[in-house]
């Protein structure tokens, strides 16, 4: 029987697969207008990869540096799932919310300093609410500080093959030194799917 956590993760995985299919179908049906318009703009970066084969189906500025914003939370989730898989914590582990985490700007759950959240609920809060306070609390719990956690995130990115990504925080809140590429985020997406299929 699936837990609520695995049901949400399964639904997200199915949605990602459907999005990939939609991107491919949309690209095929509007190839004469949409794709050239995207490709002509340096403002945007995009990549579509077949998650099963690794084949690149479409790319535009895929290696250009961009600010990751809340996509940063994908790596925060990766680190959380990895810690749970390694037995350093479990879905019921209570993650404390510091004053610093509670003070993060929205989007957030609105925790007060001293409150806590279960690891499973923290994952759901990041996935469904993009909660900055929760992402920061997770980073502090796993890394000891958000700064140390960001270093761990960047090191993990390198091990996954994300050569052009640097993280500076767990949430994706603005930081001029935090950057990634569409290709690197695709690598992370595939790694999440492959390494944590049941999370």
From TrEMBL:
InterPro entries: Beta-lactam/transpept-like (IPR012338), Peptidase_S11 (IPR018044), Peptidase_S11_N (IPR001967). Keywords: Carboxypeptidase, Cell shape, Cell wall biogenesis/degradation, Hydrolase, Peptidoglycan synthesis, Protease, Signal. GO terms for molecular function: serine-type D-Ala-D-Ala carboxypeptidase activity. The active site is at residues 70, 73, 130. It holds the Pfam family Peptidase_S11. Residues 1-31 form the signal peptide. GO terms for biological process: cell wall organization; peptidoglycan biosynthetic process; proteolysis; regulation of cell shape. Belongs to the peptidase S11 family. This is Putative serine-type D-Ala-D-Ala carboxypeptidase. It comes from Ochrobactrum sp. 11a.
